[in-house]
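Methods: example folding runs. The two proteins below were folded one after another, and each record is reproduced exactly as written to the output file, sequence line first and structure-token line second.
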Amino acid sequence: MTNLFKGPAPSLYKDFSPLAYFSYQPGRKSFQQGYLGITNNVSIVGFLHLRYPADQPLLAKQIQICFLGNEYIQLQESGPKVLTYNSYQICKTVVELWKSSDGNYQEIYDMDLPFEIPLPLDAPSSLSIDKERGKIEYCLRAIILKKPNIKHFRGSTKIIQCAYTVNRYTLPPLPDPKKWIKDDPTKRGIGYEIILNNKVFGPRYPIVLRVKLTFYDPRISLEEIVVGLKEYSAVSSQSDNKKRSKYIGKKIVKGKQISVSSESQENECTTDIKFTIPEDCIAKLDWSNKSFHIKVTHKVKIKVRFGLFNKHNFSLEVPVKIVNMLDVEEEAYLATEILYQQEISRYLEPEIQFNTPPPNYEQNWFPDQTSLPSYSSNTQIN
């Protein structure tokens, strides 16, 4: 039978079969309902479809669905992948979808089972760094208790497993610029005022740097300004700690591209440099993230050069957060959902319709943390 339902690609399944597969809700592109990190109610929602031929029905008496998340770390440079002893299960939620009414095996030919699994609000985003040396993975797993086939050496449990990517989101950041100011009291060198527009960046919220240089010595000329985004990753265990760093991208502005103004007493130049995510990224970017043994951080690094080994050369840097932000379509959907929920609240509680509280948001997951997040414990839902 032709699959008329939109769902994960066959390549995401451990062993794909047209006899049993998952699909999204109509009109959706993902299982995830709600915006993790912004809304308080986030679920994995979809359908399990069973399509067995009339001459070979599935004989089953129970069907469960499980959403599972794990952190994996591999600290050896070569050899087979191993799940080290200090890896950690992030979440495991099991929901019963169907059960035989009499406890006996029943023939199943054509069945569609909807499911909804609450997603822990503290679950980190899916992640894979440094050739899977450290990764956070999630999967959706249907567990079917079926009649064993001894003749063909088939056991009593059938598993349908599909990999799934969990995304966290962040609301647009409030203005929080970073400023560096330095003057030359001798009036013989360089003065500068440099402003970074924020400390949180992501898609649709680029890094913007405004540079103003004052040349007290007219013989000094600007060679170049370099703005770089650097990523640092660390995977640790009780016996080892591996750290890596790489530049995600750089923007270079040559001095000859910037005009110098001599209207004031000293020569001055001012320029704005923009680094857009992901357009200006030349390497794979991971969001700023922190789990039990994996940590990803970022810095904006600034270099201002006036010549090779020039004593006036200087460098600046600042830690920043690189986060996943809603796109235009997602923002519109979220706004519609908030208005819908407010209308429901007004309808149910008309006496407070002019004093309806604002929608609840989960606290931003990215403030400075001094301890590891406390992931939700395993959950069994009947």
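Second run, written to the same file directly after the first:
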Amino acid sequence: MNTVTLPKTKYLQILDTQEKLRDDLINLRKIVFHLAQDEISLKYAKRLSNIEKRLSFGKGLSFKNKSEIKRFFQSL
């Protein structure tokens, strides 16, 4: 395992970004459930819930580039 040294400000910025992403994901889930309760599949709802749990525990997702992010969201 490699160790990376980051300035404290950069580390705090990463934590802040992760928290904002988690909050956005929670809001997205609430909106989707409100608008399409009968149309959303249980499998999709469970995936969003699992992602939310991992982010809450500090386990994030890492992507190498924008295309990986795009593929991730399309796979949901």
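Comment on the second run: The chain has a mean pLDDT of 80.
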